[in-house]
Model the fold of this input.
Amino acid sequence: MSEKNSKPPFIGFGLGLRSEHYTDILNGNPPIDWFEVVSENFMVPGGKPLQILDQIKERYPVVMHGVSMSIASTQPLNMDYLTRLKTLAKHVQPKWISDHLCWTGVHGINLHDLLPFPYTTEALDHIADRVNKVQDFLDHPLALENVSSYVSFNQSDMTEWEFISELTKRTGCWLLLDVNNVFVSAYNHEFDALEFINGIPEDRVIQFHMAGHSDHETFIVDTHDAPVRDEVWDLYRACLKRFGPVSTIIERDDNIPPLNDLMPELEKIRSIGYEIHPELKPKAA
Amino acid sequence: MSNLEELQQRFQQAILNQDGSILDDIKDTSKEQRTVLLNVYQNAYGARLIEFLENDYPHTFSYLGDENFQKIAADYYKHHPSDDPNARWFGRHFPAFLKNHADYEHNPECAELAALEHGLGTAFDAEDIEPLSLSSLTTLSPEAWASLTFKAHPSVTILKMKTNAPTIWTALNNEETPEPVETLEQPQQVICWRGENMARFRPMDYDEAMIWNEAMKGANFSVLCELLGTYWPEDEAPLKAAGYLQAWLASEFLIAR
Done:
């Protein structure tokens, strides 16, 4: 088994890297185990973004997380994008590369959204083929993330978790489980979040995202702009029990608080991790 | 065309056209109607693209005000839907769009303000290429100096301003009320670039702009000196040219050709 196919190691509890925190991170070396960086933010010709990334990667393990692979699109794979992604990965040497199980547009248009698709055999054949091609192209492990969705399609003939399970079987890809997204989609599409969790293969999940959402009563929107809700903490515990120790970050995309305000939430993620898996706790000297 | 391809095409059209053409394919839930659920995607689309533009053109946004900016931004994304996976490039046509927009025909400072912000954005994350330094030229023979030609650093953007948009930018950047718009007697050339790791701009003197433009077309140093002779006495022109060249090198405008 090549290195890119072997399971990446547990790297602890981290944060999504945001520009608002650059100064505090570089001046303070805060106790954060690792950072997830948004690939596209650094797929630029040069300048300060890449200089900062170089400084971060010298001090912390880094994972690259993209938003534009559009793996579920029926548009041909964007080889220019993938080439630039691979070039960045060669420079950054991330522990793994992730993107979303979704599409972002067709016919040359990018809607810059993580769009849903029907869970059908046709979609599975199409996406599995693309995942295999992308994995062959990239020199790093690939993890795909479940997205929050607001609509479901009449055409679907399997559940989301059945679809994801089958995709991992066919491609050997890894999974980034966004725990909040499971909660949001479960609420919106009226399924049991635990049934989703228990339907995902135990050995494929290499990362969790934790985030907040906005409740509109009849549906929930995955805003990633607020602290993690209590119900999602419960689900995080269930995920840790099912999937074992999994590298986790807080993914805050909007309404970004000062770094110090995020640290207690990160510590909560860590302490629940230690509670469920005491073996992770550093041994006292 | 596959079922999935056809569905994605219609879903995209429903977002771009803000219509219900995809509704037959999606489900109501026991809590909500599908029209409302589809609206989550439809509303997010425009809001997200406008936010990209606000981030790339913060002073243009502030100068136009929320209502005007939302209107022109919505018009922009209808004419220029994003065609790149990276949102960084979505707003690249915005200055030209403003310049040619009927609503801004009599407000050329708006497009110039946007062009300035675009120039600064380009400078911010332009390719890292070692700028040409003065020390690398000091060993050249007089003959080599005469035939020396120049190339702009990728961070450089040259703009022609007909208004006092740079002054307006500076006021907005300092959170001050900008001066009233002025139309300049002669268009002024402004250079945007990255120097000492910061995106910057400055106006160029008329003679400096003239020789810069000729230098970028390939004119060598000796020709630049001759051209400056049209502005300055013959014995002062080479010194003037050397002075400009020194300033360009110190500012990191140039790279090896």
